[in-house]
From TrEMBL:
One GO MF term: pentosyltransferase activity
Membrane topology: Single-pass type II membrane protein
Transmembrane segments: 34-53
Pathway assigned to this chain's UniProt record: Glycan metabolism
Name of the protein this chain belongs to: Glycosyltransferase 61 catalytic domain-containing protein
Predominant place of localization: Golgi
Length: 472
């Protein structure tokens, strides 16, 4: 049925109008019926797509008139796995910003107080596993990653069982400070996930494959987390997928100060346990131990004997004080743990050896020394051990910067100036050093007197952090 509208054309002089024209429109009932059919068709299409996403391996397309087998769909999913460069050169100007240039297509997962991370398989990965095709130690853009469902990992890929820790750092895993920052979020993860050691590590620097950590860093990882091999992919020609993987690419990232302190407490406790350091005897000692931890070569003191004599004299004046002098290159890992565990006041030039301060008791003191030129040219990196002291619960008692020395040959080239100043030796100021040492020794004695009952200083003991699951 339709409703007709007749349009009449008026006659004009001597001209006859053509026959009336009729234009038909559907009535309301037919219009509603058509809209209903269109809506139903769209709904069915959306429903089919939704079901396909829900169960990609067990879905057939009825509209095609034939049914795809599970094997067909699995093969299609395998073929659709896309590998991308681990190092995304589009972000080379800001490689540490956002979610970094490492695995840049995947957004971080955030939890309160924790460093940002990626976890596979997870809801955010839609249940897919992490896969690498990464053998290149020189160019991270040639190393590749992808995500794939377990039933449809890439052609020729192998699946490694267990949990894999994947670490990418902008710096390295060899230097004590940078290596510690790279593994710290994994220690936090390990604590809150039941202290189960991973099956392996996979290490990257700028997306380039690394097959070892520095000896000190590796020992920290083993005592705080557990022993695990570092994957080299040797003998593996195709892609490698991981049954379970967690990725940290921001070092400390968004970790809260309290969480970093928890990590350092665990490292301190587990290292002392590993090295069999008897803390009861150390805490019972009456004397204050001032340790001069000296460097050889770069950033060593020009007149070491004079510097030692200044601190020995102030220690003698203070009473109940002893000075111990050690060189950074003469000690094993456990020697360093024992030395720092005994140390109340650390006197040392700026350098990687200062990372050992995390083995000192909380509320111990640190005195730091720099050669000329660092304050103006070194940037924020010169403050890392002040930050470490704060995070580890120490009292950073300031710095002394050598004002003496020849100027930079070319002041207009600031980078070259820094390299010129970076590893210079450090002079001394007898009067300043004496007053500074006297003040720090007095502060330490007052702190000890403020502890009324043995063992009442919770911040200094914290041995419970050797137990899994303990938190701040």
């Amino acid at each position: 049925m339709s409703t007709s509208i007749t349009i009449s054309l008026e006659k004009s002089s001597k001209i006859h109008a053509p026959a009336p024209k009729t234009v038909s429109f559907p009535n309301n009932s037919s219009l509603k019926h058509s809209l209903f059919l269109v809506t139903l068709f769209i709904f069915l299409l959306l429903f089919i797509q939704f079901k396909a996403l829900q169960s990609p391996l067990h879905f057939s397309w009825p509209l095609l008139g034939s049914q795809l087998s599970d094997q067909d769909i699995t093969s299609m999913l395998r073929d659709s796995v896309t590998f991308l460069p681990l190092k995304d050169l589009r972000f080379s100007k800001e490689p540490e910003s956002g979610h970094t240039w490492f695995m840049s297509s995947i957004n971080d997962t955030f939890e309160p107080n924790e460093s940002e991370y990626l976890y596979f398989p997870s809801n955010s990965s839609k249940g897919r596993l992490l896969c690498f095709y990464a053998h290149d130690p020189h160019d991270g853009a040639k190393n590749l990653y992808a995500i794939a469902w377990r039933e449809a990992i890439p052609h020729g890929a192998i699946l490694l069982p267990g949990l894999t820790y994947v670490s990418d750092t902008y710096y390295d895993h060899s230097n004590l400070w940078h290596g510690l920052n790279a593994i710290a979020p994994f220690i936090a993860w390990n604590i809150r996930k039941g202290c189960v050691a991973p099956a392996r590590w996979v290490l990257f620097h700028w997306g380039e494959l690394r097959t070892e950590m520095g000896k000190w860093v590796n020992t920290i990882a083993e005592v705080a987390i557990g022993k695990a091999e570092i994957e080299t992919f040797k003998g593996i020609e195709g892609p490698t997928c991981f049954e379970e993987a967690v990725v940290f690419r921001h070092s400390h990232g968004a970790m809260s100060k309290a969480r970093v302190g928890e990590v350092y407490d665990r490292i301190r406790c587990k290292a002392r346990e590993f090295c069999k350091v008897g803390m009861d005897k150390i805490r019972d000692k009456k004397d204050v131990q001032m340790t001069l931890f000296l460097r050889t070569g770069a950033r060593s003191f020009k007149n070491e004997s004079v510097v030692v004599s200044v601190f020995e004299e102030e220690c003698r004046k203070a009473g109940n004080c002893r000075v111990k002098v050690e060189k950074t290159d003469n000690l094993s890992f456990c020697d360093q743990v024992r030395l720092m565990s005994e140390t109340d006041i650390l006197v040392t030039p700026h350098g990687a050896q200062m990372t050992n301060i995390l083995f000192m008791e909380r509320n111990s003191s640190v005195m730091e020394f720099y050669p000329k030129g660092w304050e103006d040219l070194a940037g924020v990196g010169q403050y890392v051990y002040k930050w470490l002291s704060d995070w580890a619960g120490m009292r950073h008692q300031g710095v002394w910067r050598d004002p003496e020395g020849p100027p930079c040959p070319d002041p207009s080239d600031k980078l070259q100036c820094f390299f010129d100043f970076k590893d210079r030796q450090i002079g001394h100021d007898t009067v300043y050093f004496s007053k500074w040492a006297s003040k720090v020794l007095q502060d330490m004695k007052e702190h000890r007197q403020a502890i009324p009952v043995k063992g009442n200083d919770l911040s200094a003991t914290r041995t419970n952090f050797c137990q899994c699951g303990t938190s701040v």
